[in-house]
Design goal:
By secondary structure, this protein is an alpha/beta fold. The chain has 11 helices and 13 strands. The mean pLDDT is about 95. Helix 2 packs antiparallel against helix 11 and helix 5 packs across helix 6. The chain binds NADP nicotinamide-adenine-dinucleotide phosphate (NAP). NADP nicotinamide-adenine-dinucleotide phosphate (NAP) binds next to helix 5, helix 6 and helix 10. The site of NADP nicotinamide-adenine-dinucleotide phosphate has 26 residues, from helix 5, helix 6 and helix 10.
């Protein structure tokens, strides 16, 4: 796989994707994003493809927002099996997909495209990936947790909120900076899934009250991506009985995780979610179990 450049252009998918067909092995999977050069997905997926003996590779393609519809249209003629979507395409792709799963509709976004008989199918593995990560990290299924989701009406937050509702977690509280967005999502979920859910603002008072009635706190805000970011939670609210999952996968310890550790609470960062959402994508493309440990090791080395 040494002959692939770091990042391809969206135009490379035109003309039947000749450039991708000529690679050895040919590229038939990609991540679309802008920016995309930083994506950890290629090493993780390529390690899986080698282990599974699929004679194809997964590459990065820089797709600008305005190029997305055409890039998606060209996937099939370029002989691609599918693609991963990252910022800024997860929500924007929905109108250009032939068939979107019910879950992804509710999540309002897709991160996975699979091409079957020339048609584009859309899925969201962020919600199920978080669910698998929670079970791996804490040994308790998502459906048994009373959950507080910080940034619950953002892109990843919405997927996680819907996942909790689909699995039937006993209670879910969305805390969103823009409270109106949280209220709208809560209302939508109540209408579609008949699931009790509440929405609160991200104020010290509301968060303090919410923390008394939840077991699991999930951070789905980007706070923590930069080393000097503050925690999304005020000091002193986490107790040793809480479980804290930070979806941020910066590699380092976020301020939220430091707060959890000093309170004696069990906690984990977003690496496991990244791994599980990728493993679920592999299964959607090949209809076989993903080689999880190989993907885990590849992801670890790529981030070392
Ligand atoms: P997004 O769509 O932009 O949503 C961001 C959310 O965070 C919104 O709810 C936003 O509130 C809130 N927010 C942003 N800045 C904030 C601040 N300073 N204080 C309080 N709330 C703030 O972003 P996204 O794509 O969902 O990504 C969110 C995080 O999830 C990122 O850290 C990303 O790395 C992580 N993620 C991890 C994985 C994984 O596999 N581990 C997968 C996907 C995403 P408003 O609605 O009020 O703007």
């Amino acid at each position: 796989m040494s002959n692939a450049p770091e990042v391809f252009a969206s135009q490379d998918l035109t003309g039947g994707g000749e450039i991708f067909r000529k690679l050895n092995p040919p590229a038939r999977l990609a991540v679309f994003g802008d920016p995309v050069a930083h994506s950890a997905s290629p090493p993780m997926h390529n390690a899986a493809l080698r282990e599974q003996n699929h004679q194809l590779q997964y590459v990065r393609i820089l797709v600008r927002a305005e190029e997305l519809p055409e890039a998606l249209r060209n996937l099939s003629s370029a002989d691609f099996i599918g693609a991963s979507l990252t910022i800024p395409h997860k929500q924007a792709a929905l109108p250009f997909i032939d068939q979107v799963s019910r879950e992804s509709h509710l999540m309002g976004a897709i991160n996975t495209v699979a091409i079957r008989d020339g048609k584009l199918y859309g899925f969201n593995t962020d919600g199920p990936g978080l669910s698998a990560a929670i079970f791996e990290e804490f040994g308790i299924p998502l459906k048994e947790h009373r959950v507080l989701i910080l940034g619950g009406a953002g892109g990843a937050g919405r997927a996680i909120t819907v996942q909790c509702a689909l699995e039937g977690s006993p209670s879910v509280i969305i805390a969103n900076r823009n409270k109106e967005k949280g209220d709208l999502l809560a209302q939508e979920i109540q209408e579609h899934l008949d699931f009790p859910i509440s929405s609160i603002p991200m104020t010290s008072e509301s968060l303090g009250l919410a923390m008394k009635s939840v077991d699991l706190i999930v951070n789905a805000t980007p706070l923590g991506m930069k080393a000097d970011d503050p925690s999304p939670l005020p000091e002193g609210l986490i107790t040793k009985d809480h479980l804290v999952y930070d979806t941020v996968y910066s590699g380092g310890e976020t301020t939220l995780l430091r707060q959890a550790l000093s309170a004696g609470a069990r906690c984990a960062g977003g690496f496991s979610m990244l791994l599980h959402q990728g493993a679920l994508q592999n299964t959607l493309w090949f209809n076989e179990l993903a080689p999880m440990e190989t993907m885990r090791e590849a992801l670890k080395s790529s981030r070392a």
